[in-house]
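Sharing a chain and its predicted structure for anyone who wants a worked example. Both blocks are below, sequence first, tokens second.
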Amino acid sequence: MTVGLVALGALGVPHALATALDVKASGEKTFYLNPRAANSQITIFSRAPLEDFTTVSNRVSGEWRVDPKNLESTRGRFAMRIEDLRTGLDVRDRDLRGPDWFDAARFPEIKIDVGSVTNVKKTGPNTANMTLVGVCSMHGHTNPVSLPATLAYLDESPLTMKLGGGDVIRIRAEFTLRLSDFGVTGPPGTEMMGFRVANEQEVKVAL
């Protein structure tokens, strides 16, 4: 792990030691996710006794603040709209947006706010593992989350200019969420939850 000396972190908190990547860039930069660019993706896999299916959203919004010389100051957020979720079946998409499931009319998005990171470990010249610590808001409920993630940082280059210009970051995470923790339980009086829709959903994020 490369360690550098930093006087003050992005939030004004002293950092005697900070994890630094071997890149040209330094100082905090803000990176925005453009949902129309469709270059970010959230994939959710439901594994239930009677049915498996995958839900995908390619329209992810959000922003991240990253200092490649002080990864401990990383923070950000990302969100997806319920109406953008696609499972491969129109009728299932409609049901998931309805009041018995995610109730998109009342709760139009799922979002994760990351206020801090822990367990930062450099894994390559421009990559690191870390745990994203924050909260997930869904269906009117907000719960704490800790998400194992990887971060890659690319200095501005001819390649990044083709992607929109400037420095580029890539964040990937894999984790599970229990729908019942957010009050999502399916149609009352049925056995949809647990038999056709898994309570524990496997989530992959590529931002």
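Comments welcome. Residues 32 and 99 are 31 Å apart (CA to CA).
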